[in-house]
């Protein structure tokens, strides 16, 4: 049986897993964006706080994903929840780092003139600093998204949702006639989700970045 | 133009009272006990070597730096008792790096403070267009552009327009033209002076360039270390009567010549000379020369425009021949321009004409020497804010001209 025969026969199941996969990444990214940008905003004024935040979020990335999922079992059990928690932890570093970098890259003269014009701290942040840092922050979110689309495949080891089910299912049944096709379908599916998200980011970037600061 | 003035509230007086700023970890204060009054509607330039505390002083006025002690009054309000953000919306602020918001259009940049003050959209749009016109940018072309699509000079025009958006009584300008090429800078300075005629704001202008200070300031405060006021006076007085060696050194050599550049021909009493009109007879011309014991006469055409000098000997060939190069200047020019023209032509007498090019009088080198580069010390020249020297006082000067041959006089 060819790969394409397998895919067309298993289509509803593959589609369902693909949607699950994309969906768990979306949920994790929404949480990670809010948390990561918030951490960035809190720490960016202080060199030491920034170093601390980057060290902690960086540490998450150094833990092998397989191990992290397993380590989370005693804390949050199996299934959907540990998947989201682990993905959020992995997504934080690029977002925090780019938020700090983006906010720091705003020309001090621009911030000074904003202050001199009478914008208060909140107005300076929301009207000036964040919009100007946004392209850099968005790049961090995009990198995180692509990274965790791949890592989400590992979630199957803790009974998580997504295309990992196909990959691990295939690997554990190696030798059987459909094992390879099944794993391959999972891998290709992950790539499709990643490319899909990347395309979405191109659009988001177009619509949320002022023409005045687009390259 | 009246349209613009209608939208300007004019200026407010600024008083600094024993203003002091000590930065932590520095033994000497950056600004020490500075007391200064900046009159409403005037341009006061703070000038001094780098590190003298001029920018620190300026930034205390809008509380970007908090004073260690002393007080600042804006009109009757003690600045230190006002919410800093509210205060800053009453003070236009222009900096060297301009600091336009790159993600906003020109209109959005100008409209930001009005928007914070709760103005309606259409009022903001109108105000932005009005200000763009005021600073010499065509609104239809520029209102929807982004800062990156503008040249440095255009960006600073927008910077000035943005500072004026909510019609603040006071403007602080920190080396606004410092990063702009010399030709554009000169043009912006001229336009800035013209603009100030219309808006009459109280302007504190910081620069390290004494030439810029002399050109723009109604008054100049020359600051030494710790913002010690070495001299606070009009440009004319500072050039002609530097208060001490520090000021003299700071304004540099050539101060006398430069003060001539501030002396407008409108303000100078012209000399007279012997004039002959084209339709006068040669005999008459000779007679006038003999009577006045002058060795040459100025030939005027039908519109009383100077045609050249004529000596008695030249009259042999008729009135139209002879004569060398002529130094002709308009009354809107300065004594400095006269000197320049005399050097160029090698003459010692310059002919001054009115705006139609008609003879108004002459200025002799001896007269300029007698001025010795000084405005009369008993009468400190207070520069008025009227446009300088637009209307020569023709009648008055011609009345002194008793030697000339007048048209219609029987010959």
- Biggest sheet of chain A, open or closed, and with what strands and sense? none
Q: Structural class of the helix and strand makeup of chain A?
A: mainly alpha
- Major β-sheet strand ordering of chain B: 6-7-8-3-9-10
Portion of residues within helices of chain B: 25-40%
Task: Write a structural description.
The complex is a heterodimer of chains A (215) and B (411). With 215 residues, chain A is mainly α. Chain A has ten helices and no strands. Chain A has helices at 3-9, 11-43, 47-62, 65-71, 73-76, 80-104, 108-116, 121-151, 164-172, 179-208. Chain A starts with a helix and ends in a 7-residue tail after the last helix. By secondary structure, chain B is of the alpha/beta class. Helices cover 34% and strands 21% of the residues of chain B. In chain B, strands 6-7-8-3-9-10 form a six-stranded mixed beta sheet, with helices on both faces. Chain B has a four-stranded antiparallel beta sheet with strand order 2-1-4-5, with helices on one face. A three-stranded mixed beta sheet of chain B has the order 11-12-13. In chain B, strand 12 (296-300) and strand 13 (306-311) form a beta hairpin. Chain B is elongated, with a radius of gyration of 26 Å. Chain A binds chain B through residues 107, 109-120, 123, 127-128, 131-132, 210-213, and chain B through 62, 64, 85-89, 91, 93, 95, 97-105, 112-113, 116, 146-148, 159, 162-163, 172.
């Amino acid at each position: 049986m060819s790969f394409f025969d397998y895919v067309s026969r298993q289509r509803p199941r593959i589609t369902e897993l693909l949607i699950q996969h994309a969906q768990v990444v979306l949920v994790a990214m929404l949480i990670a964006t809010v948390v990561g940008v918030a951490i960035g905003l809190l720490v960016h004024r202080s060199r030491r706080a920034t170093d601390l935040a980057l060290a902690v979020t960086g540490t998450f990335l150094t833990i092998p994903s397989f191990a992290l999922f397993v380590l989370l079992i005693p804390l949050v059990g199996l299934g959907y929840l540990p998947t989201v928690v682990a993905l959020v932890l992995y997504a934080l570093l690029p977002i925090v780092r780019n938020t700090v970098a983006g906010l720091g890259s705003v020309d001090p003269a621009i911030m000074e003139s904003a202050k001199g014009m009478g914008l208060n701290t909140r107005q300076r942040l929301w009207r000036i600093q964040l919009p100007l840092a946004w392209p850099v922050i968005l790049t961090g979110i995009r990198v995180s998204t692509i990274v965790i689309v791949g890592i989400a495949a590992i979630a199957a080891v803790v009974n998580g949702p997504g295309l990992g089910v196909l990959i691990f299912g295939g690997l554990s049944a190696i030798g059987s006639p459909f094992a390879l096709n099944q794993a391959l379908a999972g891998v290709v599916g992950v790539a499709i989700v990643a490319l899909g998200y990347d395309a979405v980011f191109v659009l988001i970037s177009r619509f949320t970045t002022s023409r005045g600061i687009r390259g | 133009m009246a349209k613009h003035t209608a939208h300007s509230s004019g200026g407010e007086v600024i008083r600094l009272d024993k203003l002091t700023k000590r930065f932590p970890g520095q033994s000497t204060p950056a600004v020490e006990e500075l007391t200064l009054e900046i009159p409403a509607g005037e341009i006061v330039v703070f000038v001094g070597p780098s590190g003298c505390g001029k920018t620190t002083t300026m930034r205390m006025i809008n509380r970007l730096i908090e004073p260690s002690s002393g007080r600042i009054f804006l009109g009757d309000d003690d600045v230190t008792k006002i919410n800093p953000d509210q205060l800053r919306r009453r003070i236009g602020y222009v900096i060297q790096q301009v600091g336009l918001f790159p993600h906003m259009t020109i209109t959005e940049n100008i409209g930001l403070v009005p928007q914070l003050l709760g103005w309606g959209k259409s009022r903001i749009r109108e105000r932005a267009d009005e200000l763009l016109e005021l600073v010499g940018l065509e609104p239809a072309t520029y209102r929807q552009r982004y800062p990156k699509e503008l040249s440095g000079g255009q960006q600073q025009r927008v910077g000035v327009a943005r500072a004026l958006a909510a019609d603040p009584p006071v403007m602080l300008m920190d080396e606004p033209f410092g990063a702009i090429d010399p030709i554009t800078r000169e043009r912006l300075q001229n336009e800035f002076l013209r603009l100030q005629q219309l808006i009459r704001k109280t302007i504190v202008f910081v620069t390290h360039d004494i030439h810029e200070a002399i050109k723009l300031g109604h008054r100049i405060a020359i600051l030494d270390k710790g913002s010690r006021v070495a001299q606070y006076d009009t440009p004319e007085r500072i050039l002609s009567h530097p208060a001490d060696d520090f000021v003299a050194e700071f304004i540099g050599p050539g101060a006398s010549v430069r003060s001539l550049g501030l002396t407008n021909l409108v303000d100078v009493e012209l000399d007279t000379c012997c004039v002959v009109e084209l339709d006068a007879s040669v005999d008459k011309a000779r007679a006038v020369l003999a009577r006045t014991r002058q060795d040459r006469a100025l030939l005027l055409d039908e519109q009383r425009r100077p045609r050249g000098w004529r000596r008695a000997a030249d009259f042999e060939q008729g009135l139209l021949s002879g004569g060398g190069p002529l130094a002709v200047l308009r009354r809107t020019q300065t004594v400095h321009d006269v000197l320049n023209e005399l050097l160029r032509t090698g003459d010692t007498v310059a002919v001054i004409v009115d705006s139609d090019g008609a003879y108004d009088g002459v200025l002799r080198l001896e007269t300029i020497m007698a001025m010795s580069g000084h405005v009369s010390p008993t009468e400190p020249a207070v520069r008025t804010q009227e446009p300088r020297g637009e209307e020569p006082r023709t009648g008055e000067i011609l009345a002194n001209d008793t030697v000339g041959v007048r048209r219609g006089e029987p010959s």
